[in-house]
Amino acid sequence: MHFNPYGGPAAELAAALVNVGPATGGHERVRRLVPLYHRSPEPVTADAARLILAWAGRLAPVFGDPDLDRQVGTVNGLLADSASRPYISRHDGLEPHIHYAHERDGIVTRVRAFTAAGLAHVVCQDPARLGRCDNEGCAVVYVDTSRNGRRRFCSTRCATRVHVADHRSRGARVV
């Protein structure tokens, strides 16, 4: 599936941030993760990482929610709270493109607007593309960019575990 820049890297950053969770070392992981998806000359400080992790907790309910009205309501709340202000930018010699926060805003504001807009684009294109792993006990979320949009697992490892368990539960004899 092809996404515009906000539906692609922005939604993928949202998923990556949700997957960091409150684990030990999460702030350092956020500091390394954000620049992989979001271009910014501003480094992610420890304080910014803490605020971004808190934001990630608000992004999490959007993934895998089968209730479209609730999903839309959650994303609309994220857009409102992110101070999203769409405008066309031509910074750094780039072609005109849409920004949802000004380049001079702080990194936290920009990441909030970037991720909220990314999720909004995916929800408007195909909300089922925002998934949660079907492996019981796995809390990983993902953006399904597969061609057919039928992804159910976060990784082949989780898929294999579920398929092997299903096979064994049917009483099949393994040689």
Descriptive account of the structure:
With 175 residues, the protein is mainly alpha-helical. The chain has a single domain, classed as Orthogonal Bundle (Jann2411-like fold), CATH 1.10.3300.10. It has six helices and four strands; from the N terminus they run H-H-H-H-E-E-H-E-E-H. It has helices at residues 6-20, 26-37, 46-59, 68-81, 107-125, 156-169, and strands spanning 87-89, 97-99, 130-132, 141-143. Strands 1-2 form a two-stranded antiparallel ribbon. Strands 3-4 form a two-stranded antiparallel sheet. A hairpin with an 8-residue loop joins strand 3 (130-132) and strand 4. Helix 1 (6-20) packs antiparallel against helix 2 and helix 1 (6-20) crosses helix 3. The radius of gyration is 18 Å and the shape is globular. The termini are far apart. The relative contact order is 0.16. The mean pLDDT is 86. It holds the Pfam family zf-CGNR. This is Zinc finger CGNR domain-containing protein.
